[in-house]
Amino acid sequence: MAFPRRYFMVRVSDSAPCRAAAEQPVQIDLNTAVLLDVRSPEEYASGYLKGARNIPHDRIGAEIAAVVPDKSAQVILYCRSGRRANTALETLRAMGYTNISNFGGLEDAQERLGLPVVTE
Length: 120
Prior knowledge:
The chain is α/β, with parallel strands linked by helices. Strands 5-3-6-7 form a 4-stranded parallel beta sheet, with helices on both faces. Strands 1-2 form a two-stranded antiparallel ribbon. A two-stranded antiparallel ribbon has the order 4-8. The chain has a single domain, classed as 3-Layer(aba) Sandwich (Oxidized Rhodanese, domain 1), CATH 3.40.250. Mean pLDDT is 85; it is low at 1-23. Strand 6 (75-79), helix 3 and strand 7 form a beta-alpha-beta unit. It contains 4 helices and 8 strands. It has helices at residues 41-45, 60-67, 83-94, 106-113, and strands at 7-12, 24-29, 34-37, 48-49, 53-54, 75-79, 100-105, 117-118.
């Protein structure tokens, strides 16, 4: 199945690490998906994927509605290894978000999405 230029299929897992055995294909639209780096602000400042917003995993419950008010919007999470992204994923699911993916660590997400790392 062919997708328009900014659409593609990737295999991701709902749990960390991202390369878990029970992976499912997910269609990503980089024009509308919200990319969230859930690492600390210091880690984010050292390098993040182009277009990513930073909401640390321990503040995601309090801050997500300001960034992603639509609970059906596609949200892609990543951190350093996938563990904090999984914690954030579980928090968002409990809040009613329905279209969330854990892309694991920064390098995994970069490889899967083909996005450059930006440094401040």
